[in-house]
């Protein structure tokens, strides 16, 4: 019997409504809602379908504004699709914006407990994993200093280190590898390799195309909200590079 896919996306579309003018009064807001004037519809995704088996590392590539982050937020349950269906199997954890929930006036130690609780860990569970988090983040000398004194790289290391202790069946990673220094990036990559080898399904959004071909067996190319290509990562990346490297016809 075939195994159930970890993620199944069926004809998913997502529409956003963009108002032309801000409503400054309750009356203006009500009239705007009734008349629906001065608003544009923007389709971030249109009719996207694919399935991802458990344990696959899938890259989602495309230019800025192509719908990559919107797709991850739908899979992560942050957005609901305007139409279509989504099915996920197991626990989905999103590394979409590192450090969400961090409080700058609290210490690194306090932020570990606070941020980990947002992922559903109890205080006891955080205490049991605290040493591993600090060791991964390499901030032992600064863990009791206020977070506002941390560099951007230190805060990113701490945020990612917390997520290494969160058990997930499906992991969503949005440009995390673009944050931090080279040594930290390599550590993140090694951690994701271990997760992949243990059977975790990983979605990776990245503009680092060499890294995509190194880590992922498959890639999806989104363009203006539609799926341009789905296939082996190297083939999709090569087609993507050729497409945007080709000379464009001159416009008069």
Gyration radius, rounded: 21 Å
CATH topology of the largest domain: Rossmann fold
Q: CATH superfamily membership of the largest domain, which one? A: P-loop containing nucleotide triphosphate hydrolases
Could you state the order of secondary-structure elements as H and E? EHEEHEEHHHEHEHEEH
Major sheet: arrangement of strands: 5-6-7-3-8-9
Shape call: globular
User: How much strand content do the residues show?
Assistant: 25-35%
Instruction: Report the uncertain regions.
Output: none
Please tell me the total number of domains: 2
CATH C-level category of the largest domain: Alpha Beta
Residue share in helices?
A: 25-40%
Mean pLDDT: 87
Q: Explain this structure to me?
A:
The protein is of the alpha/beta class. Strand 8 and strand 9 (226-232) form a beta hairpin. The strands form two sheets. The protein has a six-stranded mixed beta sheet, sandwiched between helices. A three-stranded antiparallel beta sheet has the order 2-1-4, covered by helices on one side. The chain has helices at residues 26-35, 68-75, 108-118, 123-137, 152-163, 182-197, 209-215, 233-245; strands spanning 7-19, 39-52, 57-61, 83-88, 92-95, 170-174, 201-205, 218-223, 226-232. It contains eight helices and nine strands. Helix 3 (108-118) crosses helix 4 (123-137) and helix 4 packs across helix 5. It folds into two domains: 1-91 and 168-252, P-loop containing nucleotide triphosphate hydrolases (Rossmann fold, 3-Layer(aba) Sandwich), CATH 3.40.50; 97-167, Orthogonal Bundle (Helicase, Ruva Protein, domain 3), CATH 1.10.8. The chain is globular and about 55 Å long.
């Amino acid at each position: 019997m075939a195994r159930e896919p970890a993620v199944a996306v069926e004809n998913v579309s997502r529409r956003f409504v963009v108002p032309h003018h801000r409503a400054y009064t309750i009356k203006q807001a009500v009239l705007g809602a009734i008349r629906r004037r001065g608003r544009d519809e923007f389709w971030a995704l249109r009719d996207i379908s694919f399935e991802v088996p458990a344990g696959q590392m899938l890259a989602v590539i495309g230019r800025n504004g192509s719908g990559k982050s919107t797709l991850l937020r739908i899979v992560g349950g942050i957005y609901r699709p305007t139409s279509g269906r989504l099915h996920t199997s197991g626990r989905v954890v999103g590394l979409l914006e590192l450090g969400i929930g961090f409080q700058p006036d609290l210490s690194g130690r306090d932020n570990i407990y606070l941020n980990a609780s947002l992922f559903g860990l109890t205080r006891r569970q955080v205490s049991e994993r605290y040493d591993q988090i600090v060791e991964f983040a390499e901030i032992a000398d600064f863990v009791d200093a206020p977070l506002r004194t941390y560099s951007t790289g230190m805060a990113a290391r701490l945020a990612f280190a917390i997520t290494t202790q969160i058990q997930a069946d499906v992991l969503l990673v949005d440009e995390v590898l673009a944050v931090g220094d080279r040594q930290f990036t390599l550590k993140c990559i090694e951690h994701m390799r271990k997760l992949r080898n243990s059977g975790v399904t990983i979605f990776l959004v990245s503009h680092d195309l060499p890294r995509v071909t190194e880590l992922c067996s498959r890639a999806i190319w989104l363009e203006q909200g539609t799926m341009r290509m789905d296939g082996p990562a190297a083939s999709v990346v090569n087609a993507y590079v050729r497409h945007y490297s080709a000379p464009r016809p001159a416009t008069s």
